[in-house]
Request: fold
Amino acid sequence: MSQKKIFCYMVIFLMILSCSVQEKVNSKYKINSRKYNAVSQGERIRYIVLHYTHADDDTSIMLLTEQAVSSHYLITTKKREPIYQLVDDKYRAWHAGESYYDGRYSINDSSIGIEIVHMGYDEEAYKKNAKKPKKNDVKVIDYDYYYDYNDVQIDKVVFLLQYLIEKYDIHPKNILGHSDVAPTRKQDPGPKFPWKRLYTEYDIGIWYDDEDYSLFMTNKDYASASISEIKEEFIEYGYSSMPSNAVWDKESKQVISAFQSRFRPSKVDGNIDKETYAIIKALNKKVKDIK
Reply:
């Protein structure tokens, strides 16, 4: 008998043996996923986190498909290109890094990441003109140094967010920027991302009511509030990275800067003031009013 025939017989024998063993395993126990269903369960996806890539189209695609970072979706600058899904929603993508929000660490585990191709800000102009921050100050990038988002990209963001929000029943407060979940490390999607427009035109995300803002601007809460009480407003909203100490240290200012970049982009300086306090108070009231 030739070696070739002997090899074929051995392969057939092993296949029969394998099927026989598998059959015994399968017949011993069965898994029933239909008879009972636990009421205590929920969707893994609680948050959507928006980023900019700080790179051009080709580089962004390479970084998000060939390197140790990834996102579920990518929106390029090109009008006729589709929205690219790079990671299935049911899998974890590596987009948020070290992150902390609303009492939860590792936001990668419970979020969908959306990367928008965008260069961020003009680094050369910033380095040339910006003042070097002092020891306890934060790196503040002026609004004018940031590049604009193009309308096509925002249209795609709106389309994708509407789809995901409906599919996973995402709470309005849980539509986030990278800087919300990692304020000590990240600035994206930056102060020129149109959060207010998304809310007013498409009912996406969250924004404070003008009446509440005016109310908190005129009352005397800010003048009498302690540092700890002010910080507690940010922690209550979801900025868990805010230190609970009674000083405005560098980390605390970074959280304020991230908050201002999103809710008061016209003046991002990392310093608490009456207006910033009125906005966070109005937002906390808004969250309580949302059912």
Observations:
- The first strand starts at residue 47 and ends at 52.
- The mean pLDDT is 90.
- The longest helix spans residues 3-28.
